[in-house]
Amino acid sequence: MEPSPRGLILDLLSTVGRTSAPVRALISAAGLFGIAENSLRVALARLLADGLVERDARGSYRIGPRAAAMNQEIRGWRRVEERLVRWSGAWVGLQLAGARKTPARERRQRDSALRVLGFRLLSPGFEVRPDNLVGGVAALRERLASLGLADAGPVFRLDQLDASWDRNARALWDADDLLDGYRTTRRQLARSGERLRHLPRQQAMVESFLLGGAAIRRVVLDPLLPEAIVPSAERRELVAAMQRYDRQGREIWQHWLGDGEVRDLPVGVRGPEMIPDALVGARRS
């Protein structure tokens, strides 16, 4: 899927982290995806007005405060396994406050954030996920607040779901579908990794950005379920494959950052994080 101008800007600015990128660099990258300069500038102005990007004294742009929390969630894709602890069988519950009265725009933002955190709807207005994340309920409250959901409703631990409700909760995720997604994405990355070696640089930049973004989207939106619900080996293999592919993509994109397009990069930044456009909706609202 081709990125939108808004999505591409946020993806590229996510790449450079705490530093900023000049408009000329964003225009240069947009041209690879057939995005016209005027469209890029219009999208940039709207993102600035929405607080999703900000401009520094030199006229360069970086991720803005309203997008920072979601951007941090996305940039943590390499370390998802470090977020897990052994599952005791308990759940985290979230009783949504005023769910039926929530405006559509706020509901979309809320649903995007809840999906990133792995929640699923168990009954009307009541979301759950396994209590297997580092920091437990307290950490999830903090993450919900950082994503703009401090007032979403009470968050609490469930230790004693009866057998039927526990079965219903475990069935909220399709384990076979998750496993198939891990395997399919891993095969796509392997095939593309071989193909990139022989493509002209601009074609390789586009393919690595788009496929890498789709793969990161799968990792970021993974519910990080415990072994008792979905075996974790396939997920770990996907993350490892994406880390290898990301290194390859960074080498391909090196010139965008290394030829003077983007200056003052932090140590270690060598290429784009390939952030998925499909998650931009959560950052727009």
CATH architecture annotation of the domain at 83-170: 2-Layer Sandwich
Low-confidence stretches: 259-285
Secondary structure tally, helices: 12
- The average pLDDT value, as a whole number, equals 85
> Which CATH class of the domain at 83-170 is shown?
Alpha Beta
Strand order of the largest sheet: 4-5-3-6
Largest sheet: 4 strands, antiparallel
**Share of residues in helices:** 40-55%
**Order of helical and strand elements:** HHHEEHEHEEHEHHHHHH
| Outline type | globular
How much β-strand is present in the residues? 5-15%
Cα separation of the termini = 21 Å
Please summarize what this structure is.
This protein has 285 residues and is of the alpha+beta class. Helices cover 53% and strands 8% of the residues.
Strand and helix map with partners:
Blueprint: H1 5-16, H2 23-32, H3 37-50, E1 53-55, E2 61-63, H4 65-75, E3 91-95, H5 104-116, E4 120-123, E5 126-130, H6 136-146, E6 155-158, H7 163-170, H8 175-196, H9 201-220, H10 233-252, H11 254-258, H12 280-284
Antiparallel strand pairs: 1-2, 3-5, 3-6, 4-5
Helix pairs in contact: 8-9, 8-10, 9-10
